Structure formats: structure tokens, C-alpha cells
Amino acid sequence: MAYHSATGPIGAEGRYWDALLEGRLELPRCKGCGQWHWPAVWRCGSCGGWDHEWVEQSLAGTVFTYTRTHHPFGGTEAFAKPFATLIVTLDTVPVRLVGVLEGDETGLRIGAPVTGTIARTAFGDAQIPASRWRLL
Ligand SMILES: [Zn+2]
After folding, report:
1. Ligand 1 centroid to residue 16 C-alpha, Å
2. How far, in Å, is the centroid of ligand 1 from the Cα of 33?
3. Does the residue 3 lie in any domain?
4. I want to staple 35 with a disulfide (CB 3.0 to 4.6 A). Which of 15, 16, 46, 62 is the partner?
């Protein structure tokens, strides 16, 4: 299934969205030099290669940083306020992802280990796949 934004098809990261819709996290690695690229790119900035392979990753990492949202805005209707949004450094690859924290915030700090799941966020009539994180 191809994922389309409100304005049209997604670019180089289309495979990311397709995998999330199927319940997997996949990230691109350059076939020429092995460099991980996130956000996805069409061409590798390290070796100039055009070919990437998409590799499934586990949703496990540590909190790089976070922020807490207290006021509603478009797209956050489904979350009880306040909620925390994390930037997580994955354990398996040098990539950081953004996602909302689920569950108890006790122990939330930079460097805290987390595990993730793939959920859907309601945005208007659309269901957008997204990573969610829980503290270990
Ligand atoms: Zn490369």
C-alpha cells in the first residue's frame, strides 16, 4: 500500500510509511558504503550512490531528549494533556526517531531506555502510523 500525504505521494521515505502501515520499522542504508540515512534520501551524500536497502529495525533505544505538551493543537486531539514527545536514539543504528511517550512518565529523563510500538494517530479522517514509546 502506498502512503500519500494530504498533498500527494511521499518522496524517498515512502517505504518507511508503507512498512509502518504493515507494523514494521524499516530504515534505509546505502548499498554502496553502508551509511544509514534518516530522513531518507534519494542519493547518498557520502558516496554518491543511488541504491539503498531497507532494513527492519527493532523499536528499542534511549531518550535523546523530550518535551512536554500542555496545550492542544491540530493532530494532538487523541492525547491526554500533558503528554511527552521523545526523540529516541535507536539501539541498533545511528538514527533518531520522534514519538509520543505512552504510560507512566516516572523515570523520564535523557538517557532512559525505552521500547516502542507502532500505533496510529488520528488526524482528521486520516490514521497516520507513528511510533510510540514506553519507559523500561
Ligand atoms: Zn553511500
Report:
1. 19
2. 4
3. no
4. 46
